[in-house]
Amino acid sequence: MTADLTRFSINQMTVKQLSLPELVDACRDVGVPGVGLWREPVQAYGVEAAAKLVRDAGLTVTTLCRGGFLTATAPDERAAALADNRRAVDEAAALGTDTLVLVSGGLPPGSRDLRAARERIADALAELAPYAEEHGVRLAIEPLHPMFASDRCVVSTLAQALDIAERFPAHQVGVTVDTYHIWWDDRAPAQIARAGATGRIHTFQLADWITPLPEGVLNGRGQIGDGAIDMRAWRTYVEEAGYTGPIEVELFNDTLWTRDGRELLAETASRFVEHAG
Amino acid sequence: MTADLTRFSINQMTVKQLSLPELVDACRDVGVPGVGLWREPVQAYGVEAAAKLVRDAGLTVTTLCRGGFLTATAPDERAAALADNRRAVDEAAALGTDTLVLVSGGLPPGSRDLRAARERIADALAELAPYAEEHGVRLAIEPLHPMFASDRCVVSTLAQALDIAERFPAHQVGVTVDTYHIWWDDRAPAQIARAGATGRIHTFQLADWITPLPEGVLNGRGQIGDGAIDMRAWRTYVEEAGYTGPIEVELFNDTLWTRDGRELLAETASRFVEHAG
Does the entry feature the keyword Isomerase, yes or no (chains A, B) (predicted)? Predict the structure, then answer.
């Protein structure tokens, strides 16, 4: 199966029951060439130690998740968010990945103004993007499903993400294409083509859509093949748009997290080959 | 307050703890001039009896909810859905409302093809729309929030709804504009203008967006003013598009349903005036 996993990357959150050394071991055993890492477990392990661990194992760090949360209006909160995002850029550079995923943030308490919140993201990127470039890191705005628009991410579609990203050079700011968030959107294929035409597909992630959604709707993403999304169709869209990079599987799922992490990694790799390979 | 309630209509589901006679009484007491009714409680009471009850009370039936669920592929299921929708048209006509709200239906089991499901809706409407016209009823396609795309409604945006509706005369098929489902969509104001330009805003409904969403995400709609949606802005959009009809408040909320229905109706009317009046 190894040959078919050339493009595959496992996002650390999918198998968060594994420690970082366990994840690295499991990737070697299953033949997984890439990992998308998260800041919190990397910080807990130590950024430099984590970087050495994955580098010594020959793993490619395909993304770091995540920066963002740039919608605050209070000056001190905004300054803190910018400082934290600069640290995220530093961590991405230390880990050797060229892509920092950004989840934009929701509406501030009491606000009903999505448009203004989206503008504050663009304002913040004007400060962050040059800093990221200096460190060899590209920012990848991730539109999240519209069900997260109020409390997590005011950027809900690829079109909205590109409207922001295109204010910057493509090597500074692009987008994250994640099937879970955009599969319902009949405009998304055209927006993928738009993103590809200017080299802005900075990462491509997979998760399947299953129902019923759990309370809070955060941790109900489906294993590849279990849900409503035609994975091969979306892979075709990004490849026709010129994307040749890694394909990350990123699942948040309370049930999957109760399982043996190594077994789950092997299953996920197998599902990737079956449904998106 | 009565004068400010001229445009207000209460959707029966908002106060489903009230029986139909209790609802009619409460509307009189609060000064509510319109009701949006649901098929199941109307059928349980008797369609003709319900029609007489609301007519005698001088209430306007602003909509009947709902027809639709037109995405089946199996011929017998499709025929059953069409027959049920003809009955819904008959019931709407008997109740004296000119608007039947349509919730399109989700993906059939095992299907991943949203586009084909949307086409089957258009095919079904080609049969239903002339029947509805003969009975003086307009069909109002309701885009539901994208979080319902797989299991309830493959039509997720006003643009998608209009792409279907515009294949038919406006007096046969239009759309339902419901703030809960479209508030996140930066394209929605332009689509409301598009709908208004051809007389296709057949009903306008309000519900607020609150989080966290409950398991299954169906019954978590917020009381007007409790959430993230700028109600007055959306009222302005539909009115600038030429809409002068009733404004229905339709909430599905397990917590609100535990309260006294008459008190809830009065509160809802008051919130309407405060936030959307």
Answer: yes
The shortest C-alpha distance from B257 to chain A (Å) reads: 19
pLDDT at A153 over 90: yes
**B188 at interface of A, judged by CB pairs closer than 8 A:** no
Q: Give tens-digit pLDDT for B117-161.
A: 999 999 999 999 999 999 999 999 999 999 999 999 999 999 999
Q: Any CB–CB contact under 8 A between B120 and chain A?
A: no
Number of domains making up chain A:
1
Chain B, 228 to 247: residues with Cβ < 8 Å from chain A are 228-230, 233
Shortest alpha-carbon distance between residue B185 and chain A (Å): 8
- Domain housing A144: 37-249
Provide the angle, in degrees to the nearest 10, between the axes of the packed helices B75-95 and B47-56. Answer: 30
To the nearest whole angstrom, how far is the Cα of B277 from the nearest Cα of chain A? 17
Alpha carbons A104 and A115: distance in angstroms, whole number: 13
Which CATH number covers residue A202?
A: 3.20.20.150
Residue B181 contacts A where some CB pair is shorter than 8 Å: no
Kindly determine whether residue B160 and residue A216, on different chains, have CB atoms separated by under 8 Å.
no
In a domain, residue A30? The reply is: no
Q: pLDDT confidence of A120, banded at 50, 70, 90? A: very high
DSSP string, chain A: -GGGGTTEEEEGGGGTTS-HHHHHHHHHHHT--EEEEEHHHHHHH-HHHHHHHHHHTT-EEEEEEEEE-----SHHHHHHHHHHHHHHHHHHHHHT-SEEEEE-B-PPTT---HHHHHHHHHHHHHHHHHHHHHTT-EEEE-PPPGGGTTTTBS--SHHHHHHHHTTS-TTTEEEEEEHHHHTT-TTHHHHHHHHHHTT-EEEEEE-EE-SSPPTTSSSBEEPTTSSS--HHHHHHHHHHTT--S-EEE---BTTGGGS-HHHHHHHHHHHHHHHH-
| Per-residue pLDDT at B272 | 98
CB pairs under 8 A between A and B: 92
Selecting from A151, A215, A230 the residue whose C-beta is nearest the C-beta of B214 gives: A215
Contact state of A147 with B217 under an 8 Å Cβ cutoff: yes
**Residue A25 contacts by C-beta under 8 Å, 6 or more apart in sequence?**
none
Select the residue of A107, A228, A229 nearest B228 (Cβ to Cβ). A107
Chain B residues with CB under 8 Å of A185 CB are: 146, 156-157
Tell me whether residue A11 is in a domain. Answer: no
What's the rounded mean pLDDT across residues A106-112?
Answer: 96
pLDDT tens-digit readout, A18-38: 999 999 999 999 999 999 999
pLDDT digits (tens, 9 = 90+) for B182-200: 999 999 999 999 999 999 9
Within a domain: A229: yes
Which residues of chain A neighbour B107 with C-beta distances below 8 Å?
228
pTM: 0.97
The token duo for B249 is 């408040």
Residue A1 lies in a domain: no
> How near does any CA of chain B get to the CA of A169, in Å?
24
Contact B124, B105 (CB under 8 A): no
